[in-house]
Amino acid sequence: VTQGDTPSTGSTPNTQIRRLPERQVHDRAALDALLDAALVAQVAVVDEGRPYVVPLAFARDGDRLLVHGSTASRAFRVLAQGVRTCVSVTVLDAVVVARSQFHSSMNYRSAMVLGAFAQVVGEDKDHALHLLTARLLPGVDWQRPPSRKEAAQTSVLALALAQWSVKASAEDSPQDDPSDIDAPVWAGVVPLTHTWGSPRPAPDLPAGVDRATPRAILDWPQGRA
Amino acid sequence: VTQGDTPSTGSTPNTQIRRLPERQVHDRAALDALLDAALVAQVAVVDEGRPYVVPLAFARDGDRLLVHGSTASRAFRVLAQGVRTCVSVTVLDAVVVARSQFHSSMNYRSAMVLGAFAQVVGEDKDHALHLLTARLLPGVDWQRPPSRKEAAQTSVLALALAQWSVKASAEDSPQDDPSDIDAPVWAGVVPLTHTWGSPRPAPDLPAGVDRATPRAILDWPQGRA
Q: What is the model's pTM?
């Protein structure tokens, strides 16, 4: 893996996939769809020479990826310095049961974004905080926005979607060796589904507040994971 | 984050959680339960000074974590050298809709394991390959095991569960500020469920093979993600 420039296509030496290149997806729309479906990103931080991976809530905002966290977080303080990072986002779609153990696998979509985070401040920070909530809780427009104190306790960082790659495996059927196809055994694909369960209203909702799930939440898209 | 020894408890300076320490779980059973539920681990690799995070299928084998991949994979070749790594495993359980944007959050379970992978060889490798399949496809005992050539193309690495931490958030109700509780708005918890969909038999199953989903697969535990 060698150094490359940072073109908008996302296809640079750093993000070329060497193994199974047929699984690489060059479509920016596929990146956006994955980032908009996933709820958590795994973010690499190298701190005093040691690698750490921290799971963070995130949101895509056009051509950048936003994360937020406490200003007291060590990982955020290190990331805010603009060190190199890698963000990995993965959604699992199915388990593939082949006739052979070797060809058994998972269907998945996975993105890698390389670069360095930069701190988001001022009005852009207010916009980013709003957008992070809007992505997590689509249509929920009744919440109290952050107070000045709450915003001050929150660090917001942005990473450009410049160097990225998407890998996906979406086998409709196991890719078995021809010599295994006639084995008298079951083979197939078992989908893994990510759906919303029944919302539980807070037990301390004041009298007079409708406990029924709001329409906006009933309308949340399925498949987020 | 500073260097620590590697006691079996997993409680070392490297894995002490500084933010929100009340969310830290010290129970080894909680680590095992999370690792046994999750299907993918996010593994840090530092290659020529740059951090990468790669999603890998994995399995817990007692006090170690096993991963496997192609011997041609650059990430596997680097990890096999015994460099420091961090493995992150996260399962999302719910979205928490608070009265305030600030207190909205996710319920999750997340593990971090620090250390260095070592190559698994010989009979132990055969055992590890068997176990990786058994964890992914519980009860599926009819598959052709790896040929000598397939096993030779596969690299198996193990990481001791020595330095680890588990964080979990499992709010039954949003943790709002007292001054927000009387707001006349809905608040609550929306569970995110991970379930198996309807298995699709391979279209090329030979005549005479029952297309119905085998009992072992119908019995797969829910909640894997």
A: 0.91
